[in-house]
Amino acid sequence: MTTNRSALLITYPIEHVASEAKSLAESAGYSISCTVTQKHLTRSKFGIGKGKADEVRELVKSSNIEYVIFDEKLKPTQQYNLAKLCEIDIIDREKLILEIFRLRSNSEESKIQIKLAELHYEAVRIKQKVRLAKRGEQPRLFGLGQYDAQVHLLDVRRRISVLRKKLLKEEKRKLVQRTGRARSGFPTVSIIGYTSVGKTTLFNFLTGESKLVGVELFTTLSTSSRIANINGKKVMFSDTVGFISKLPAYMIDAFKSTLQELIFSNAILLVLDISQNYEILRKQLASSYTVLIHLGVSVAKIIYVFNKADLVEPEEAMEKCKQLGILNEGNKNYVMISSKTGMNIRALLDLVRSRIFVNTMKVDNS
After folding, report:
1. How far apart are CA 278 and CA 281, in angstroms?
2. In terms of C-beta density within 10 A (0-12 exposed, 13-18 middle, 19 or more buried), how is residue 185 classed?
3. How far apart are alpha carbons 340 and 185 in whole angstroms?
4. pLDDT tens digits for 111-139?
5. Considering the entire predicted model, what is its pTM?
6. Spatial distance between the Cα atoms of 54 and 182, rounded to a whole number of angstroms
7. Which of 21, 285, 309, 313 sits at 20 to 30 Å (Cα–Cα) from 84?
């Protein structure tokens, strides 16, 4: 992985938001030399105001900055305008996540999924180049004329079509696998949640596996499944890709063949980091719901797993749950655990067993 690429970070003036943006940048191999914050990152011309853009330009020149990382989705014209002003490459949030995905991909399927997402990102920008060229505005935008851009767009669309067909084959292969598991009588439980909340650590604890666990974001990009024994009953546990805020729909769709496992699961363990403050917890929960809703997964399958409970007082943990609305209406589908120490893992397994073996082998596909 390429490292030590100096970058200036443009983000929001909110501590946990800026911290996550910095972690994303570092996970992609950038070293943040300086940070510029602004309350609004969706201004029309540069994403930031003209005065702030001028400040960024001066910092880039004076600090030997190689890249500018913008912690928000930029329109192609905004990206171009800021790049032209600063005379440097601008990496927006979507492109940054795609770079991390590419670095973390370790299976043929995930590589195809990431390439598909990258092509969708690229296609939007080529379409904008064609529109501007037709209007006679910036006809050589990003070094492409109207004809070149149209040819490039057609090529990108062709490659997207090819990759979709490959992923469709993968979906069919996984459907055969799921059908085989159903016939064998193994109920399935998927472990999901925000990136870096401890999903893989929990998966390892439950299954006896030794999957790579890292402090960097998106350590897991492909699903791993293993059988575990719960009081004499065999259960298939699956560890899935981590979620993150502002994950665009086309990225979710690119990983559809991987995430479809959630639709067919008998139960879903939604892992949240209870040691974090309420705002971060709320973001973790909302981001997870966004993906589940987009995929059409029933929230009735969810068991809320509050991980890292060994790092917080019980009263504080319960108060956070109440704020999130998890404890409303006598909800019993939650448990406080520590996947690191094993705290309350037995209670979690008992809850899983009670949920999936009440109606043996009945799969909720709603």
Report:
1. 5
2. exposed
3. 30
4. 898 999 999 999 988 887 777 666 655 54
5. 0.85
6. 60
7. 21
